[in-house]
Amino acid sequence: MVKFNTICRSGQERSTNADITKVYRNPNPKVHPLAHAREYQRALVATKVEKIYAQPFLGALNGHSDGVSCIEACRFNLSKLVSGSYDGEIRIWDIPSRRTLVQLNAHQQMVKGVSFSRDGMRVVSSGEDKTINLYDFPQLLEQSNNTFQEPLMRYLSKGTLGNVDHNYQLSQFATAGQVVQVWDYERPKPIMKFQWGVDSVSCVKYSPADSNLICGTSMDRCVILYDVRAESAIHKVAMLNKSQCLAWNPIEPLNIVIGNDDSNCYTYDIRKIEQPTMIHKDHISAVMSVAFSSSGREFVSGSFDRTIRIFPFNKGYSREVYHGQRMQQVNSVSFSADAQFVYSGSNDMNIRIWKVNASQKVGTINQREVNATNYRQALKEKFKYNPEIKRIAKHRHLPKYLMNKKKQRQEMKESKNRKQRNAELNNPGQYEAPKPEKQQRVEQFIQ
Amino acid sequence: MAKDKILSAKLKQQEFKTKSTQLKTQKIAQLLEPQFQQSVEIDDERPLLKISNFKEYLPEENVQNIINLKLKQGPYKLSVTPQTTYLAGESGHIAAFNWRHKQLECEFDVKEKCYDIISIAQRNFAVAQKSSIYIYDPKGVEVHKIRECKQATKLEYLPYHFLLAALNQNGQLTYQDITQGKIISTYRTTPSSLCLKQNNNNAILGIGDQMGVVRMYAPNTGTSLTSMLCHKGGVMSMTFSRDGNHLITTGSEGTIKVWDLRTQKLQSQVAVNATNLALSDKGILAAGRGTDVVMWKNCLIGDLKTPYLRYKASSMICDIDFIKHEDYLAMSTFDSYEQTVVPESGEPFFDTYEQPELQNKKQRLETNVRQLVEKLPPESISLQSHRIGTIDRTSKMIIEKEQKRQIEEQASKKIKKQKKKMRGRNKIGKREKLKELERDQKQQVKWQEMLSDALRVKRAEKEKKKFETKLLDRLEQMSSKEFIRVVS
């Protein structure tokens, strides 16, 4: 008995045109010649294609007649955004249609801060004219044609005001300013005041996990942690430069990111605030505003050097930089609730909408396309350390002033390192190694 | 240092992941392998040897594809794909037909000598004719005339690099990029080359010559990458195995040798005289000489003693080739084209994305675009193709040297602009004079070179004339007997 097999392909063709043609995949490497070279080529093409399709700017919301000072995206409704400007105007925007829904002349002077409550029913705004307005959000949207709508409640403050932040759980909000004040809805006067030293506090934020913890950045270059239950501050740390802004990590609420005037962002662990856990360096001018994404893995920072940068929470350098020819100093940034879009309000009276992943398609995507993008992403991940691919993936076009400034900084850094090395080599025994950089940035820790 | 540790740990993890998933997918694929084969049982203990022994037991589809076409015009060269065969007769008869559906695609007469034919991307084909290489449409319309390769006798096509390689009788090897029409490289190989074959696994070309040496070539380097002394006589024909680890050669002294390419040592040999060789996907070797074809089953493992099948064609065989992913052997002879069944020679489980011939129209259109986008650069062709994308483990010193050399090359290529002097007098007239001087100097150098070339040519011609006149004088002076001796 002799037994052998022969190939018969007659059963392969489909019976009707409505049937799909079968696709056969043989993972045996003998059937795939030159597999390594082809895979590398595919990864190279994938990185290049990503650059070709990188169009992060989606649109701008224009209507303000003075620079935009603060914006906040709604936590519960993806299409709403509140912004305050230098001339005291507050606008509520509908993002998909790029229109203003409600226009309010809220304050006599600049709007210092805007904040939504957790359930989205209330909006709080603080102005430089020492008043705090509390609005009912659904009511605002109903009576949208009335620009002189009265707020639900108006609170008057004795001292000047900074930004305002609404409590995550209770009907309370905290304001920064000459003195940190905690307000309740029912009381016309603040229920609590914090003051440490004579300097005013510029930015104040509630912790997302504990409604009794407030963190603030003050004008004497400090970052202070307050406890509402104990009615006092816990500790503070003084840095080399003053910080403008603050954000809590929503997923790891023991970490905060502060944006400093020396163009770096610092991540601190509030339990051990003597030293930053991470320094994020990429801006070349003061960081005006920081905001965390709801995933807690990324944060966006807008700075005085007219760019916004997206940083991974644990890396020292930015993943992405967005800049525009017409975009001036960025005053505030905000992440959308689904972590897909970033909003930036700047001095040129516009609010810009950017994509978080610059080459991602907006809208519904076919399942086949999703599979293809996942495959390409895996390829890029596999070859990301390869120098040719790394160079292409890392490359970002920057305006000339940024490039020059960066090169300058690089030179300064190199010369500093060279001098240190030379000092170390030429003065054995006498030379004291400089402190690690994380320690260098902090001046003092005060209990 | 800590950074390197983390990086190396990550890379190790990645490598482990890819390897383990590869093994898993292969295991699963083996279990889920679709049934493309039909098993045939014969109640006979004798080995198969002749197709007449088992023809009646074969399924009908296979019997239908046993072809014997009578052709007229001269010995034919062959190129087969899983759908079509391309035939080029020596006196100019060119035909392409779909052997599966028994349809003629195109047939025409070129009226000059044809040396070789090969199928190219997207169902086009290239014919090496006496005047130059022509590329034809699937319908037989002439699309390109490649003038740069002169009198090519052998063609090979590298599918993933879109390179057409043409070998001359003088040994001139040219690589041409089909998508751009650019000649990538051209150089001299051996003056007495007999056969040209591609190693499908790493796109290296092997050329065998009359001295019995087989040399490997890539488009980057002008010289051979390696060479092996294979036979005492000339290398008549050669093939590579599918995974690129074995090379099988026939010599004019009458042996077939199986070489292990990783160690470059002889694995096994058999004293059989053969002029043509073909190796199937699964390792069945077919050797043709005269009208006979002998096939061995386990040649790569080393068993060349008992032949698997024998076939007798109707006339002298010119070219043989196995059809990929099928159980057929195609042969072109002096006056016929024949196709016969060789069971268990083809790989039944094909991959749709690798074989555009086995796809339907829409899939083929997609692959056309995708192949062009993923075209490999010719610089990536090397003997060790698996090293691409892996960590470069050469020493730091060598890498630094290479980087230095690159920087120096770039610096030397840069054109140095004359700086505008800001101090002292800086007249425009003077600057322009300097520029003109430079230009004149460059031109002078050029003229000198041209002159010296012209002088050299003239001198060579003069000498030639002198030599010729001398010969003529001598011939006049000689008697007729001496003349015959000198000439013979």
Topology:
The complex is a heterodimer of chains A (447) and B (488).
Chain A: E1 2-7, H1 35-52, E2 57-62, E3 68-73, E4 80-85, E5 89-94, E6 99-105, E7 111-116, E8 122-127, E9 131-136, H2 137-142, E10 153-156, E11 161-166, E12 172-177, E13 180-184, E14 192-194, E15 201-206, E16 213-218, E17 222-227, E18 232-239, E19 243-248, E20 255-260, E21 264-269, E22 278-281, E23 287-292, E24 298-303, E25 307-312, E26 320-323, E27 330-335, E28 341-346, E29 350-355, H3 367-382, H4 387-394, H5 400-426, H6 437-440, E30 442-446
Antiparallel strand pairs in A: 2-29, 3-4, 4-5, 5-6, 7-8, 8-9, 9-10, 11-12, 12-13, 13-14, 15-16, 16-17, 17-18, 18-30, 19-20, 20-21, 21-22, 23-24, 24-25, 25-26, 27-28, 28-29
Chain B: H1 2-31, E1 37-42, E2 49-50, H2 51-54, H3 60-64, E3 67-70, E4 76-80, E5 84-89, E6 93-98, E7 103-109, E8 114-119, E9 125-129, E10 133-136, E11 142-146, E12 152-158, E13 163-168, E14 172-177, E15 183-188, E16 193-199, E17 204-209, E18 213-217, E19 227-229, E20 235-240, E21 246-251, E22 256-260, E23 265-270, E24 276-279, E25 285-289, E26 292-296, E27 309-312, E28 317-322, E29 328-333, E30 336-341, H4 361-373, H5 396-413, H6 428-477, H7 480-487
Parallel strand pairs in B: 2-27
Antiparallel strand pairs in B: 3-30, 4-5, 5-6, 6-7, 8-9, 9-10, 10-11, 12-13, 13-14, 14-15, 16-17, 17-18, 18-19, 20-21, 21-22, 22-23, 24-25, 25-26, 26-27, 28-29, 29-30
Give a concise summary.
Chain A: Pfam families: Sof1, WD40. The complex is a heterodimer of chains A (447) and B (488). Helix content of chain A is 18%, strand content 38%.
